[in-house]
Specification:
The protein is mainly alpha-helical. It has a single domain, classed as Fumarate Reductase Iron-sulfur Protein, Chain B, domain 2. Helix content is 54%, strand content 0%.
């Protein structure tokens, strides 16, 4: 996934790691099939692919909203999504970074 980090994240450890993880995602959606919150709620933003988009927006400079935080907090961090990802996206690490940035 093409990503252009906001200046405040460029060159930082979190920014560098998040950018590398984001670049691996190909938007295939295989991750949604194993995500318990997506299966229960049926909302794209409550699945890994939707949360990846939210984290990407924040890392590119969007102001995090209460809704963004809610969707990230609904993730159980079970990492089931990582087992089906053909690109090897380290979603657990990315959501940890996303939560840290949104909570800051």
């Amino acid at each position: 996934m093409q990503t252009t980090l906001a200046p405040e994240f460029t060159g930082t450890p979190d920014g560098t790691e998040a950018e590398a993880i984001l670049r691996r995602c190909v938007h295939c959606g295989f991750c949604t099939a194993t995500c318990p919150t997506y299966q229960l709620l049926g909302d794209e933003l409550d699945g890994p692919r939707g949360r990846i988009y939210l984290i990407k927006q924040v890392m590119e400079g969007a102001t995090p909203t209460r809704e963004t935080q809610l969707h990230l907090d609904r993730c159980l961090t079970c990492r089931n999504c990582e087992t089906t990802c053909p690109s090897g996206v380290e979603y657990g690490r990315l959501v940890d970074i996303g939560r840290r940035v949104v909570d800051a």
